[in-house]
Amino acid sequence: MNAEADARAAAQDTSAQDTSAKDVSAKATVKDDDRGHVFHSWSAQELIDPLAVAGAEGSYFWDYDGNRFLDFSSALVYTNIGYQHPKVAAAIAEQAGKLCTVAPGFAVDVRSEAARLIAERTPGDLDKIFFTNAGAEAVENAVRMARVHTGRAKVLSAYRSYHGATSTAINLTGDARRFGNDSATAGVVHFWGPFAYRSPFYAATPAEECERALRHLEDTIVFEGPQSIAAIILETVGGAPGVLVHPDGYLAGVRELCDRFGIVFILDEIMVGFGRTGKWFASEHWDVTPDLICFAKGVTSGYVPLGGVAISAEIAGTFARRPYPGGLTYSGHVLACAAAVATINVMEEEGVVEQSARTGTELLGPGLAALAERHPSVGEVRGLGTFWALELVRDERTREPLVPYNASGAENAPMAEFGAALKKGGLWPLLAGNRIHVAPPCNVSAQDVAKGLRIIDEALSVADAHTV
Known about the structure:
alpha/beta, 13 helices, globular, seven-stranded mixed beta sheet
């Protein structure tokens, strides 16, 4: 028996060595091909070293060296049901076996069902769905619809915003990623939205911030000429600019301004739709119905790219007998629609939206607030559901950011050190500016939330070392 056991152990050791050798070889191939041929977005190509990912499941992914990371970024805030959910993977495979693709002009069962399921969850009468391939295209088409519907050209968007990287979307974007792309000819006018922690209006309370922000927006409309403004676009909760939760009354106030001046109100729910804030759509938190909703990301949990625009009856009516001047080769791609149907059904069956809400109120909200009490580098905690941010500062009193706006290189060293500490602890973060965005999958377990909070707690000591 001992000889047999020794033989089995030796065979297992040999198998492990073979697997290890294969992993090393696979990693080298992946890295070499990536460095040789992949051109990465938002990056200086020679200054990056992308991690080679070998697999993923649930709230985790891992590399070829066996390092597992708890993903508190949900990829780019889109794996709302985690990685590799078996029901969604099976639905994509089943659809591939039945019909991989068909032109967008045909009526197809899975496309029709996806549109119906989405429309059943949008607010008000936003019952028509125009499918795109991703979020930026949704923004492009929402703006086009607004311009054709009104016969006007200008679009207003907030400085603290991100709407995508295509031509119109990047000009609408307010953050620094716009700088290298801003043509100043896109008909975009930026304004300041509310942000009580760093108020541009010197407000003392959220209510005062809301009132002054709305007055500023009204002044902007008046001085730009209401008759020239097609739309106002806002992220329902500001994602990339820092999980900015609008004060109560603000979105309703914008809705009133749009109604008064005949302006189309577009809400960008690309990052926050489909359970991210504990509601199907974040606008439900404030009972506000826009004219158009842009969605993407969570609608398929990112398994197959899909985006779209949910359209009100009035705007849809504009194109009842007038052709819409736009379209996409892969609009409503059947594999993506199959992923959307399966994702929405999984979220219903497993109570993922409700779980996201509970995780926010019972775990992430209190847990992050406790970290703020312990760490002088945490200036503010804000968020909803499974979408939160810690604003990191050098000085709690003055609220000086831990790193300057749009910092890079040596100026960004404190955030780079903080990020390295998180990864060393086994957590993959989403860092933006002087913030960590906490966005695990909407169905993240309580145990993984607790683990993630412990890792962040330990890593914050690195940020604390840079405070005054």
